[in-house]
Structure formats: structure tokens, C-alpha cells
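Re: the 369-residue chain
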Amino acid sequence: MPLPPLVDPAPDLSPAERARTQRHLVLNGVGDLGQRRLAAAHVAVVGAGGLGSPVVMALAAAGIGTLTVIDDDVVDLSNLQRQLLHRHADIGAHKTASAERVAADLSPETVVIPVTERLTTENAQDLLHGADLVVDGSDTFETRAAVAAACESLGIPLVWGVLQEFHAQVTVFWSAPPAGIDPVVLSDLHPADEVGTPPTCAEVGVLGALCLQVGGILAVEAIKLIVGTGEPLLGRVLVIDALRGTQSEVALRGAAPAAPTTPQPIDAPAAAAPAAIRELTASEMLAAQEAGATLLDVREPWETQTGVVAGSVLIPLGDLLDDPAQIDDEHVVVICAHGIRARHAADALRARGVDADILVGGLAAWQQS
């Protein structure tokens, strides 16, 4: 269901803007009114790197009125593999300078506010205040947490993406959505007390071309929210596996719709309600394994560097949701980092009749036991 438009429209577009955005003006779902909303919008982009680069380019080309670009880093030669805002001539210069140059080339009417200051918990609200929407393309969880907390306090939507190696996730958080819409925040996906320290892209790498794909999706989500068209990824996580060429979704809230049931004769005994997912301790999980249960690890491959449970089978959550039929064991105990993804996987398996339970607290709890 589309949400109400986030931004009131600008009074009019200049002749140059109309000529440049003509394909939007005839696009059902955007049109003249939507394009004027884009022209009136103020978007803050955190990070001008792998994700921020395509976001800045796409939003400037779309005709966003004001872009605040926040990044304290300078361009390094290794950035050019994936950060398309920058050129060899920009090495050593602030990344925000590249954002200004490229945005001006694409859309002279777009105002770029460069911020060459590191975003922290202390300054995040000040830096993001005044933006209608924030797109987070930062590359550390510390920064992402600070951005998310500021957006929650300010009540503005946060378009959020993360990627590493060949995998990515995209979603939308909003602590104060329109009436009738449940709020969704970062802690719904990553509880604050259950966040580990994943390896950096410098340690495990990232597919440069995937940054363009994910950055494009982030920009589309921002445009949808501003214009009020389509269904934003609020309460849904888009999971991308570039190696398999798949995209799947994980719900962040709400129960899945009930499966249709076969009508029963009036005098037939009532079917037993499905048992609730059991949260097993580490010792209970190992006992289940001894009894023949399959241990299914739904983390991403890079996460296994922090350890694995001996004898477990690795199938990333996105792959499992894309094809739950690949697991048909009688009893499965699902493992992830902290238990959140495991529950989504268990729900999917139980929908197919598999007796699926989870390791409570995930691998982090198992390692501490």
C-alpha cells in the first residue's frame, strides 16, 4: 500500500528542469506533481562511498532539490573499484567534493550541502535535522546505529542498506510513520545488545558492481517515499544474493498469512494446532543433534569466520527463503548470529511441515555457554 507523499510539492519547475525530467513527467506514479515533490525534497545521504555514490548520482539525476552529503573521508585509489563518484584526479580530495561536482553536472538546480565531519552519536541529530529523509550508505555499524538513533528521535524515515562480498540487505525504518502504520526501527532487525563486529569490506571484499545495484534500490525507495508511490520496504528486508542472482524478502513485523485449510467434515476431529517454535539452549541443541536433528546455519558465509557449530549445514537465509524445499529433514534446529534470522527461517520451514526450532540467542549465546 502506498504511503502518503512525504514532501509538499514545489510551486513549479524551471523550463530546464522540465526538459531534463521529461521521462518522469509522463511516468504514471510520478508525473508533474511527483516531480515537484522531488524538487522540494531535502535528502541527507550518509557516506559518499560504495553505496552513497550511486545514491547521490541517482537522486541528483531524479531532481532532488537539496542533498546533504555527510562523509569525512578522502578518496583513495582502492575506492575507484566501486565508488563511482570519484576519479583518479580526486585521490586525496574530500569525497563530498566529488558529490558536489557530479550532482552539479547532472542537475544544476540540485543544491548539495557537503559535510566533511564524521557523524557520531553526539552530532547525528544536528547533522540530520531538517532533512525529510535519510539514506544510510555508511560502512560501520557504529555509524549506522548513530544514524538510526537520530532518525528515530527526529521521526524521519531512514532508507538503509548494507552489503559485503556478494550479499546485501535493504530496508526502510521509520519510528513515526503515518497513522495506521506500525513503526519499524533498526533494533527490530539488529537488537542493540546483540550486535557483533562483522569483518570490514577491506578484510573480506565486496563486489563493486553490487554497490550500483543496491545504491539504485536505495534511491528508488527514497523516491517512492517522497512521491508517495508504490510500496516502500517498511517492515520488509530485501535480501540480495548476487552469486545466485536471487532476491528474497524477510518480514520484520506481523504474522505471515495463514495457509488455506482443507474443509473437514463437521464430525471430524479438530486438527491439532502447530506447536510453537521451541527456543533451545546450547545443551538442548546438542542433544537434539545427537538424536538426529539437522543443525541449519542461516548466516552469511563471511560470518562463519567467527565460528561454527560442528556438523551444521550452512544455507544463508536468503537462499533458504528462495527455496525452502531444499531442507526436508524431520527435525531442524536453526542457528544464526543472535536468533532473529533463525526465527524467520524456522517459520518458513514450519510452513512446509518441517519441525523447526531455533538456538536461543544464536551463535553468540552458544559461544558464551
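The chain has two domains: 15-251, 279-368.
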